[in-house]
Amino acid sequence: MAATGEAARHAGAALRWIGLPSMRDGQFAAAAQRLNDVMQHGTEAAGGLFIPTGAATSDEAGRFRHSISTADRLERRLRADDGVQFSNLGYRLMARLASDGLANHRPALADARHNAVDAVAV
């Protein structure tokens, strides 16, 4: 991760990293969490922005969430049967998390984000 941060700095690029979501399989979930810890530490050490996704893809107890309740009060699938990939709704949620994280970090992006919100509405 240090090499990635250094390469970004050298290129004059801003480092942004979107964390892995929760995973259904316990071993895979533990590995994803370890990777998130490494990536978050490395990204922030390089002055970058790490955007977490675990809370939005987990239930209140921090466990894998297969579906979410949407604005119409129906449970909709968030994830595919494999417990890794997302449904269309899940991919829109991830896009929304990325968009919100970037807009919160760079307020100048908030206006551009406002124009795209409907495209990634969850």
What is the strand and helix layout of this fold?
Layout: H1 2-11, E1 16-18, H2 26-45, E2 49-51, E3 67-69, E4 75-77, H3 88-105, H4 110-116
Parallel strand pairs: 1-2
Antiparallel strand pairs: 3-4
Report on this model:
This protein has 122 residues and is mainly alpha-helical. The chain has a single domain, classed as Rossmann fold. Helix content is 45%, strand content 10%. It has helices at 2-11, 26-45, 88-105, 110-116; strands at 16-18, 49-51, 67-69, 75-77. The strands form two sheets. The protein has a two-stranded parallel ribbon with strand order 1-2. Strands 3-4 form a two-stranded antiparallel sheet. The chain is flat and about 45 Å long.
